Fold this protein.
Amino acid sequence: MLNYILRRILILIPLLLAISIVVFFMIHLIPGDPVQIMLGDKGSEEDAARIRAELGFDDPLHIQYFKFLSNLMKGDLGRSIRNRNPVISEIQNSFPATIELTILSMVFASAIGIMAGIISAIKQYSIIDNLTMIGALLGISMPVFWVGMMLMLVFGSELGWLPISGRISRVTDLNVITNFYIIDSIITQNWAALQSTLSHLVLPAVTLATIPVAMIARMTRSTTLEVLNQDYIRTARAKGLPEKTVIMKHVLKNSLIPVVTIIGLQFGSFLGGAVLTETVFARAGVGRLLINGILGRDFPVIQGAVIVIASFFVFINLFVDILYSFLDPRIHYS
Amino acid sequence: MRKFLIILMVLAVILASGGTVMADGHEGEYGGTLIYAQGADADALDPHMTTLGNSADVIVNVFDGLVRFKAGTTEIEPALAASWEISDDGLEYVFNLREGVEFHDGTPFNAEAVVFDIQRQLDPDHPYYLEGSFPYAGFSLGMIEEVTAVDEYTVKFTLENPYAPFLKNLAMFATMIVSPEAVKEYGEDIFKNPVGTGAFKFVEWVRDDSITLEANEDYWDGRPYLDELIFTVIPNNQTRLLELEEGNIHVMEGLNPTDVERVIENDELELLEAPGLNVGYIALHNEKEPFGNKKVRQAMNYAINKEEITEYLMGGQATVAKGALPPTIWSYDEELEGYPYDPEKAKSLLEEAGYGDGFEFTLRTYSAPRSYNPVGARLATAVQQYLSEVGVDAEIEQLEWGTYIEEGKAGKHTAAFFGWIADNGDPDNFLNVFFNSDNRGSTNRAFYVNEEVDQLLKDAQQITDEEKREEIYKEVQQIIVEDAPFVFLNHMKMQIPVRTNVKNYVLYPTNNKYFHKVWLDQ
């Protein structure tokens, strides 16, 4: 097992190298010069040329790539072109916000999606089943942006139950240590900040969960239906096991493998959703870091963020693969 | 009756002691936290390291320049310099600095600090010069030949050539003075550790989320009313307005044209408006056919209904431009007639120019809204429609912004939409920028060449007599409107929605947000 994990981590190196090449050349080949974007309507051609030379953009592309790579090996992702902040600190600032949002959202999506899927499957073709599947269809079809605005209008503005935007109330003080506001407020025993952080997470997390919850519900329903028709379920029932035990012990465990795969893959697509969710709800996360980077052609920021996100994604999938062997003892890694 | 009078007097005494009477006779209340919401985060908080408005808005509250803009105007008044003399040849500026001022880190403000700050931007051999970091220095300080400390509180600038707008440059956010000790201490990280002499001190910056400032108790121009000032980032215009309506923020920028009514109808909100120092235009490439022909350029101006565009398309957020200068700038020529909508005249001018059957050309546009154009590429569609009515066929070509601006400077367009926001409130900053033939390849995007205009613009830079300068600029405006190198389109108004308990907020023509004199009715 340990061997397997180590091997998977080693594979990460060529993988990230490949990603770095693709990202580097892709962003350098799309039109748009960061210096021109930075100067905008202002600045003369001489100013632009001077700044470009000082930032090393006059070098041939492959030289720039090797410079980037050799810095990367030293753990240096460079500094942002727009604000000179070290990229690593930009990522440290924004990543925790996205992780908090993603994890909470995934918990929402998994809990509700799996539950709805199983109930649908057990009560196939009932009213509950039909309603759930219509709900799932709606969830997949509604634009994230729109869902966010609607939730904000209803629960934030009209009912006033939940805050509208931000990560934490703008007048709440929090001593930031890890940048995970939940963890920081627990460490410093700042319960007001914890409450504020959690309440600020609800609407964006629900918004971000709408598409995954629908996908998970549909996936769970179809795999559960498949498992329900297996011989071993008939055997379990024939043994006289209570229906609850059959569902929880035999059906659930066997139907979850494809669902876990979907959840793992959804983590990646969450990032796409995070860009929109973070914009609507004014959360300072990695989605916004990336989109600002792309709009400003801030090459070091884009490269850094993509590499960190890719590694994260690979680790999640590794975790999912390991999870398989717990769910299904037939799966062994050596 | 006597009892009533006594109560009234007691009340009057209580009220009078409760607040502080401000210089202009209004009462200001001390204390409170004001939250201002912007659409994007600042990029750098060192005045010299940014061109971004969102950064400038924070910077003008933390730093001071040698001089500053009088509230709500582009007139100059003393700031860190108490007085100054300009030599007759316009080459030497001697500033007498305010004594006893300290930066927020306790460093004394003096002539050495000024010299250090200027040299760090201009001299690549200076130990604290940062490569690729000073985008504005060429424009704002490039005319300086030498800067020296005469004594502790006297500093002398020598210019390469006379440059009349120089004082206005020194009032810009980009030339505000940074603590030299802070520059030495923070090195490359100075951009996120701003230390100035301004009304507010920097406390904290949470990237993409908020920047917190606190009152500078020892501010040389009097402590600000607010205890705390927070700049928060809310990227979405609708979310931002919702937060304002809920009272979670106090002032915001970036109002959608469609939301203007909603703000006006809300009793808890007030919409502050003022004309802006900006212009939106179409640059007609004067070296390319058919725009080499003056009559064609004039016809383009007559053919487009700017009243309809500003009133309906831009939702009344803009006014019609008669020339290149905004009407509120000093030296604007009130007698300009501009080009009223007159399609018949456009047709006859085209006829005279030999384009009676019309012509085809490529009209370039960017996609997203910009501060001088709230509707982005939709403006191009409207212009295309008007032109088609006089037989001119404009084919719209949309480019990504970075490429757009790069090719615009290089002159690869035949006709393209651009705009300009004032840097220093001087007419030179519009007319010389747009129409000096030396600026072809950077800001003269019409590639307009007129030797007479070049000479006049040069004269106006070198004369310090304001009346003479005004005369020259009026002459230039007449020539430019007649020559029509641009299609002059619109000037955007500044619109800032605030909560009604925000008092004494003044809109500045440069569109920077100053909070020194603002107070909250709590």
